[in-house]
Each structure stands twice: as C-alpha cells, then as structure tokens.
Design a protein that fits this description.
This protein has helices spanning 2-11, 36-46, 49-70, 79-88, 95-104, 133-144, 159-168, 174-186; strands spanning 18-20, 29-31. The chain is mainly alpha-helical and 190 residues long. The chain is globular and about 55 Å long.
Length: 190
C-alpha cells in the first residue's frame, strides 16, 4: 500500500505516458515511449524512504497551507504541524485541519470564550483553552487518535465513529462535513 502511494505521488510530478503492469519488485512500470520513465522507476526502487516520506509530508502541508491561505483562514502556516501530529497519532494527514475548518472556518471564528484561548477546533465545547495553537493541534490529534488514556474510550472506532464522538452527536452531518473538507484539501491544486 505504501509503495502504491509513493508511485501515485511521484506520478503527480511526471507528465509521461505510463502503463502500470505489475507491482512486483522487479517490474513496477512499463515504458511506452518515454525514456524518462526508467528514471522514475529507478528512483522509486532506490530512493531513500525517509526522503520520500519528507517530500510527501511537505506536499501535504503545502496543500493544507494553500487551502487555508487562499480562504484567508488564520490556521495558514500550521500545515506541517497538522500533518506531523496527524501522522504521529495514526490519523489521516488532513483530518485535524478539516476539523479546524468545520469548527471555526480555519480559525476565523475560533472560540470566543476568554477562558479558552487558542482553540480553533471547538475542543471541549469551547470551555478549554491552550497555551498555543501548536498545543491545540497536539491535543486534538492525540485525542482523535485515541492516544489520550482519559478519552480513548470515546475515540476507539474508525474515523467516522471518532468524528461522531467529537461532535457528531450534536451535529448529525458532522462526519460527512469533515470528510467533504478532507476531500477538497486532498484535491487542492497548489
């Protein structure tokens, strides 16, 4: 699965006719008429996994930041933090960002409670605040990921169930709304 994602990612940068014939270790792609395809194949087979992972994270962070920036959302610039915390907690790379859009339009309408600063995620119904946006991202990702022992029982299902625990009991369409935002982020052109 990871190899398929890498191939898909690399293809997004290369505008060459490629026919996928096999995912065996020996033959990932078959060239049609473009000699540069062999270079892509060689890169896929020999590339440093850490470098590929970093490039993928950077691309994901750029999509999040562009999505926020182009809409004038204050969470622009937090893309890499959102990606890293999601990954650290076993979540889709853009789910916490999408929750931020759904809850506060990316920070435009963050919690107004003076006792809940830095809370663009509606965490704890806007009764809890954070020392920084970074701390808010860490907290939401840790909880949605089921990695907070105090709340893990609320977030132990699949992503839809986790989102329903987050706010779906109040807003029936909540999980679908977040999934729609995630799809828009995923398809966002930068």
């Amino acid at each position: 699965m990871q190899r398929n994602k890498i191939i898909q990612y690399l293809r997004s940068f290369v505008l060459l006719p490629v026919v996928v014939t096999s995912f065996s270790a020996g033959a990932l792609v078959t060239e049609t008429a473009a000699p540069a395809v062999s270079q892509v194949k060689h890169y896929i087979e020999t590339a440093n996994p850490a470098a590929i992972k970093k490039a993928l994270q950077e691309e994901q962070a750029k999509k999040i930041d562009a999505y926020f920036r182009d809409r004038g959302m204050p969470l622009a610039g937090y893309g890499m933090k959102l990606v890293l915390e999601a990954e650290k907690n076993g979540l889709d790379w853009h789910v916490v960002a999408a929750v931020g859009v759904r809850e506060s339009t990316g920070g435009k309408f963050a919690c107004k409670n003076p006792k809940a600063p830095n809370n663009p995620f509606g965490w704890h119904s806007c009764t809890a605040g954070f020392a920084s946006i970074d701390e808010a991202i860490e907290t939401v990702a840790r909880n949605l990921g089921g990695n907070n022992p105090n709340t893990a029982h609320h977030y132990d299902g699949d992503l839809r169930e986790r989102l329903e625990s987050y706010n779906g009991r109040v807003v029936a369409s909540y999980a679908d709304d977040v999934f729609d935002i995630m799809k828009k982020m995923e398809q966002y052109k930068i």
